[in-house]
Amino acid sequence: MREENNNAVVETAQDLEQGNVQEKSKQQKRENRRRRRLRSQMFAYLIVLVLITVSITGLVWGIKKVSAAVIDHQTQKDARIAASESSENTEIAIITPDDEEVPLASEADEIVNNRIDATLLNMTLEEKAAYIFFITPEQLTGVDSAVKAGSSTQAALEQYTVGGIVYSSNNIKSDDQIKEMLATTSQMSRYPLLLAVSEEGGSKSVAATSLGITGTKAPSLLEGSDDAAQNAGALGSYLINYGFNMNLAPNLKLSDAENLFGTDANLTAQMASAYISSLETTGVSACASSFPVAVSDPASGLETCDLSIEELQAGTFVPFECAIDAGVDAIMVSNIACPSISGEGIPCSLSGSAITDTLRGNLGYDGIVITDAMNVPAITDAYTSDQAAVAAIIAGADMIFMPEDFQAAYNGIIEAVNTGIITEDRLDESVRRILRVRYTYDAM
Is 371 helix (H, G, I), strand (E, B) or coil? Predict the structure, then answer.
């Protein structure tokens, strides 16, 4: 009996041991399956990560390729447009290794526009109001006769940032003197200056007469367009050498006087076109005068021109149209009354119908418009200096030439802006035209 019990105990122990072994085997299998599952998950995660990485890399590469293709296409398109515009509007220049590369016309325009915008942004209302005035050095400084740019000029230019100064024989004494005076004045100015003289050729040339320069002809003695171009080139060469950058010429009045091209409108137009193109090639701006008809005697009162619009178009307008086509930088508007375009008893220099409607509208001129001298009886008999200045700007002029009382005219412009009679944007238009001329020459 005891032996049977012992055998039963042994069998039970063996069974337990066998059960334990089986249980361990199952646990080992479960552990092995868990590890295999983890490895499979890790491998799957790794594959997904690789796929995502590859996809992102491919997407980025594709975007870059597409962007590069779009940019390249646009660049080629822009280049074709620029090349087309350049071939239509500019001459082709052959550049040798020693030549400086000149910017394309569009690039030069952009440079000029950027400089104009930057300058206008920094100008105060007072500076803009002063910049539209074209005066003598005596009007600027208050001295009797200015022959040197010294402390009084410096102080005056700091207070009044005028846009133009016109010189007469009283201001010109010698080569070195006028060179130094103009250079110093230009350096003292906060903004680009128009430094002008009236130099028509022959005995009517202010600088040549004062300095003993010979060799140029009076307009009446010129023999055709080539002669006019050669004469203007000679004038411009010595003017720019002294420091002048504007010539108050040519005079386009139809007359057989010494300082005029003649009575034939078409011949005057041809001569004027050649004269202007040649002069401005030297770096000196031309100012054609006086639209539509010059006065006979500035010292007298208001003169009247009774020509009809048809007569003006067939005669006196013709030379101005050719001057505009030639790219004239400035046109001076006469103090004469011309009822057919200015209204009855109104000087053209103060008439919106004459300047804005006719000169700018009908003739298409967008350069600088300068009034005739405002210190003559045709103006002073009927207007104060401030009234004339304000009327000229409202009419469409850009620069007030030699007002009777510069300070009064200047203050009148500021008051007109402050009271809303003239907008500051209107001043900006004129300042922009003046700056464009000077900055364009700087960019050449």
Answer: strand
